[in-house]
Request: fold
Amino acid sequence: MIEKPLKDKVAIVTGAAGAIGYGICEVLLEEGCTVVATDLPGERLDTFGQDLDAIVANQSTTVPLDVTDVDSTKKAFDTVYEKYGRLDIVIHNAGIAHVSKLVDMDIEKFRFLEKVNVDGTLIILAEAGRQMIKHDKGGDIVVMSTKNVPSPSAGFGAYSCTKAGCHQLSRIASLEFAPHNIRVNMVAPDAVFSEGKYKSGLWNLVGEDRMKARKISEDELHDYYQNRNLLKAKVTGRHVANAVLYFITRQSPTTGATIPVDGGLPDATPR
Reply:
C-alpha cells in the first residue's frame, strides 16, 4: 500500500469552519495529516469538529483561536505542541470581507478588517515562525490570499487593501523564514461559495451586496463567477485544498509563490 504523503504530519488550519476551511481539512485528513482546526469558540467550531471526525475518526481536534489576539494564538500553538509534540504545517485561512464604495466607507469597519486580515496575519506568521524556528524542524506555511490582490473590484476596497497587506506580510515571511527551512506560500482563489454543507462566511457577508449590485439572484451570482473565468469552472474548497497540497508536499523547491485558483482570470496578473 502506498504511504499517504502527509502521514505523521500535524497541521493547524485557522478560520477552518467554513467552505474553504472544510475543503482544506478534508483533503489533509484524506492524505494522512493530523488536523488541528481552529476558529472562534462556539457551537459552529464544535459541530465542525464532529464533521471532521466523521471523515476520518480520531485524526483531528478543534482548538479555539482568535487570530487578532496574541495570547489566544500563543495558547493554541502551545496546545498543539503539548498534545502532538510537533507542528509541520500552518494554513492561515482566517479572514473577513466588507462591501463599500470608498466614499461611503465606515472607517471603523475598515479598521476591523485591518485587525483581522492584516494584524491577524502578522500574529499568526509571527507565532508560527517563532515556534517552528525554536523547534528547528522546518515547516510549511500557506496563507490564503485572493484574486483581489492583483485584480481588485469596485466596492471591495477594504477587503482588497487588507488582503494585499496579508499577502505582502507572507512574502516577507518567506524571506525571513527560508534560512530555517520554513517555506511560506500563498493560494489565491476566486469566489468559493460552499463545500459540503459549509457556506463561505465571506460570501454570507458580501453576497447580498453583490446580488443587489448586479440585480441577480443567488444562483445567477454563482453562474456569474463561473462564467467569467476562462475555463468556465466552479471553484471549490477542494480545488483550493489541492493547491495547498502542492505546496505542503514540497513537489518543487518553492517559497514566496502564489497559485491562483480562479479558473483563469486574465486581469488577475501576474500569473
The chain has a mean pLDDT of 93. The radius of gyration is 18 Å. Residues 10-200+235-261 form a domain with the Rossmann fold fold (CATH 3.40.50.720). The helical segments are 19-30, 43-55, 70-84, 107-135, 157-177, 201-214, 218-227, 237-248.
